[in-house]
Amino acid sequence: MTAMARAFLLWLTWCAAALPQTASRYTVYRAASPIVIDARLDETAWRMAPPVGDFHFNTWTEGEKEPTVARLLWDDERLYVGYFCHDRHISAKVTERHGPVSRDDCVEIFLSPNPEKVRNYYTFEINAIGAMLNRCRTDWWTGPPAWEPEGVEYRTSFHGLPVKEESPDDDHWIVELAIPFRNFSRDAAHTPPRAGDVWRLNLNRTGGVTNPRNSTWSPLAPPGKSFHAPESFGWVRFEATTPPKP
Fold it and tell me: DSSP secondary-structure letter at 56?
């Protein structure tokens, strides 16, 4: 298949993602201003970036559906991810690198840089106090389950605390993450992406003690409704321009 044919096939698939009851889709715009990774999301770039849309509560039966507002941006070096998690019961205890952070209040991004090999994907899971777990689930990785990405920078609202207990003052928490594109050179068509490139990914939220509701940006397909279901990942397209003014 020629490069032009592959590009046309990806474009058709991208358009199909707009149909109801399919994976979510989003345009990733270039950052309109420099971004400081400080868990504040107060730069002009973040204020201009559109939210990805409502998260889906795939296994919900009861309890409060606390919303998550997520945004994505990029520049020549990094993909930026911002999560604003509405939460009245914030708790986290895991501090070790590659620990079981999903037991705590936790957010995750699962990335598949090559839509033609969607089962090659990478995970970044971060709890409210800044412990991170990474996995590289690809057909070329022969190392241990844990994976050490290069140059990742991130901060959380409660970064570095030995423990975060629930508090009557709990209202929300934030994760801000910058991932260098060079980590995906084995799978992505281009690093950094070129305008029009399409990736697959999902944005997840889980964990906590009180009201531990799982949610995802792109809905999960039955029967298992597992986060580790790359066929359910959403579609994102990289745009060469900054976001349109609201």
Answer: B
Range of the domain at 167: 3-238
Q: Looking at the domain assignment, is residue 102 inside a domain? A: yes
The pLDDT tens digits of the residues spanning 2-45 come to 554 554 455 555 555 443 347 899 999 999 999 999 999 999 99
Q: Tell me: the pLDDT tens digits for 218-234?
A: 999 776 577 888 999 99
**Structure-block tokens of residue 61:** 């039966």
Pairing of strands 68-74, 25-30: parallel
For 1, 61, 148, the CA distances from 185, given in Å and listed in that order, are 21, 41, 15
> What are 207's two structure tokens?
């964990």
Tell whether 42 is covered by a domain: yes
Kindly report, residue by residue over 161-220, the tens digit of the pLDDT: 999 999 999 999 999 999 999 999 999 999 999 999 999 999 999 988 998 889 999 999
The enclosing domain of 132 has a CATH number of: 2.60.40.1190
Is 244 contained in some domain? no
Question: Torsions phi, psi of 102, nearest 5?
Answer: -70, -10
DSSP-derived secondary structure for 127-170: ETT--EEEEEESSS--S-SB---SS-EEEETTTT-S-B---TT-
Cis status of the peptide bond prior to 223, with omega within 30 of 0: yes
Closest CA to 154 of 172, 174, 182: 174
Tokens 């708790």 label which residue?
Answer: 91
The structural domain count of the chain equals 1
Alpha carbon distance 78, 222 (integer Å): 33
